[in-house]
Amino acid sequence: xxxxxxxxxxxxxxxxxxxxxxxxxxxxxxxxxxxxxxxxxxxxxxxxxxxxxxxxxxxxxxxxxxxxxxxxxxxxxxxxxxxxxxxxxxxxxxxxxxxxxxxxxxxxxxxxxxxxxxxxxxxxxxxxxxxxxxxxxxxxxxxxxxxxxxxxxxxxxxxxxxxxxxxxxxxxxxxxxxxxxxxxxxxxxxxxxxxxxxxxxxxxxxxxxxxxxxxxxxxxxxxxxxxxxxxxxxxxxxxxxxxxxxxxxxxxxxxxx
Length: 257
What we know:
- By secondary structure, this protein is mostly helical.
- The protein has one domain (2-30, 46-250).
- Helices cover 64% and strands 0% of the residues.
- It has helices at 2-23, 54-58, 73-92, 96-118, 123-141, 145-170, 179-191, 198-220, 232-244.
- Helix 1 (2-23) crosses helix 3 (73-92).
- The chain starts with a helix and ends in a 13-residue tail after the last helix.
- 38% of the residues are buried.
């Protein structure tokens, strides 16, 4: 029942996450406009139009007034958010750690949508996440050597990548990774610090996923050597696999050992 409630809550919050993913790249906010509308006819959506997943299915993926198509990305974000939060609670239990990891899951889902659609990951997502992720490291791993190692992963690796970005800018060459990707990494590496081998797994999977996508893109001709590769989805895959991997719930938290 707890997992089911977490999944349902995830779908509801995922609806807001999907709205943020659509509005933030246009410099709009979650509260302006207050009410969601149809992008084609301007119909103000009623409560019955906003039930996660169900409303989209009931309407056949179309506006109930003008019958314009409603992008499938909306119910997909709600579905993935619900499954992700339910799985996190299943692995980590109903705990403060699960809440923090759930925040990270929603963040990488939003980052994936904005990166794929607009090739950006907004600062209004990454900067608060970086603060939350870094602040949660001491709570997750305690003090002493574990804290130093965790901070080295969560701050050192993004710091190195950011240095490479600055060098590329100075030499007027293509960036090896986007600035939004680096900021996103700060947050998710910090949140994954309390999970056994979380940062290492996250980075390994993200690099392998991004490399595979780049290779396939080059082979098929969809990407070129200077193409901007959306790395946000690769980070999302790495984060979700890291926090949901078997044994990830056994990491020591709070230095209590």
